[in-house]
Amino acid sequence: MKTIINKMSFMTLLMVLTMTLIPTLTFANETISANPNPEVPAKVQVMLDRLDEIKEMDKSELSRAEKKELRKEVRVIKSELRSSGNGVYLSVGAIIIIVLLLILLL
């Protein structure tokens, strides 16, 4: 009786893994046909240029206060760039809930 239960649980696990991994692997090979050079808004381009300018600066001649001010400026620019990403961010908990709902509904 134990061997039958072990075989059934193994087969069920194998079936679930097969059903989840095969579609993922097939979609992994597809390439996205998006525009390789999407247009960057002017405001974002100005911030990126400023970051490059700060990166190329010779900071050895700057005083401690000036370096601190540059670091603050870099942090502000990076946070603005992250917030202007217009992306949809999902937490791990949200993804788990979505997967569980899909499993229950399908």
Flag low-confidence runs: none
Distance between the termini: 31 Å
Which descriptor suits the 3D outline? elongated
Order of helices and strands: HHHH
Biggest sheet overview: none
Proportion of strand residues: under 5%
Helical proportion, percent range: over 70%
Q: How many DSSP E strands? A: 0
> Structural class, from secondary structure content?
mainly alpha
What is the mean pLDDT? Answer: 79
Instruction: Evaluate the radius of gyration.
Output: 25 Å
Number of helices: 4
Overview of the structural elements:
- The chain is an all-alpha fold and 106 residues long.
- It has 4 helices and no strands.
- The protein has helices at 2-28, 42-56, 64-83, 92-105.
- Helix 2 (42-56) runs antiparallel to helix 3 (64-83).
- It is elongated.
- 0% of the residues are buried.
Keywords:
106 residues; elongated
Summary of the model, kept short:
Helices cover 72% and strands 0% of the residues. By secondary structure, it is an all-alpha fold.
How does the SSE layout of this entry go?
Blueprint: H1 2-28, H2 42-56, H3 64-83, H4 92-105
Helix pairs in contact: 2-3
